[in-house]
């Protein structure tokens, strides 16, 4: 069934049986992405994660075998959108990947982050240490938003190997394992946004009720007030629990053998060890050797606060885009397809928003153009302002609900959503 928060419900959704075959295929795709382009070339073309799950093929390995979106590849809207985007790209004599301006932005953020890290090592008081950690954490998150995200979608470089190493390196200061994050975000969330039982970003939990199909508990009455705390805890949770749960095979994402081989384990442990060394061990060693009186407890406290603030900022920038007057779907037994195409699903479950001041959007890595990103995930975020205009024009011509909100409107819609989900059914 479908549930609307401000828009029309298209009809009942189809059955989703998340079986072993789906996760075996998911593991194959993840393993090939980790192994490199040679392994990817051995896969069927439709299995690559850059292909959009429009379910136009009966053998689309992005989806569980028992459910599909309605065929979309040859629909008038899909044709018009692809044609308009390609016409714009060719008219600009451009390509879909990053360019020198993105490289300069990344370099600028890297230099600022290096300066903040140097300030950590030179701190002479607990306050200076805290401020330096907050700055470094925020800049590391900005790098992740502008580099890691594009690289995970293979939108940064033309070569898959370069994208793979870019996301792994940039993820290290943040503390997240980029291989599993790519599986969760690119292969699952982008396919099943707001589909209860499949989108891992809306999994049931004791703190937030994110769909009308999830069980209610009394604490949800107050989730519109305490959600910033949950947002702040998201990154530490992902870094120190979810990553390990995936790696130890405790989750459906982590159980298949594709990312459980020796090389994957070595990369995972190296990433975590490098993160601990960079963020905790080396600052403690240097500050102790300098005789500052700052010890490991000061470093740990500053690190935790830095992670919490960086996490809260990121979640605040993106979370409302899948909550603001959108629809949710709960597949029912006995049906074979969702009631709409993947393109329509993107319009029903996401929106764009406009930051104020406008220059802030430059540093968000295109995350404010969230609907546009879902429609064009393999395009560099540098194109999103122009692509958003293309999407708006084509959507209007085909009667689809393109929405671009101000951040105040987004926040207000987010609050209405959390209040509505907090009410007892």
3D structure, described in words:
With 425 residues, the protein is mainly α. The chain contains 14 helices and six strands. The chain is 55% helix and 5% strand. The strands form three sheets. Strands 1-3 form a two-stranded antiparallel ribbon. The two termini are 16 Å apart.
Descriptive labels:
globular; mainly alpha; 6 strands; two-stranded antiparallel ribbon; 425 residues; two-stranded parallel ribbon
Record the SSE blueprint.
Elements: E1 2-4, H1 20-35, H2 37-41, E2 68-70, H3 76-91, H4 100-121, H5 126-152, H6 160-174, H7 178-189, H8 223-247, H9 262-289, H10 296-318, E3 327-329, E4 337-341, H11 342-349, E5 352-354, H12 370-375, H13 384-397, E6 404-406, H14 407-422
Parallel strand pairs: 2-4, 5-6
Antiparallel strand pairs: 1-3
Helix pairs in contact: 1-7, 3-13, 4-5, 5-6, 5-10, 6-9, 8-10, 9-10
Structure annotation, total helices: 14
Order of helices and strands: EHHEHHHHHHHHEEHEHHEH
Helix content: 40-55%
Shape: globular
Strand content: under 5%
Major beta-sheet overview: 2 strands, antiparallel
**Poorly predicted regions:** 6-65
- Distance from N terminus to C terminus (CA atoms, Å) equals 16 Å
Strand order of the largest sheet: 1-3
Report the mean per-residue pLDDT as an integer: 84
Secondary structure category: mainly alpha
Strand tally is 6
| Radius of gyration over all CA atoms, rounded | 22 Å
Short description:
The protein is mainly α and 425 residues long.
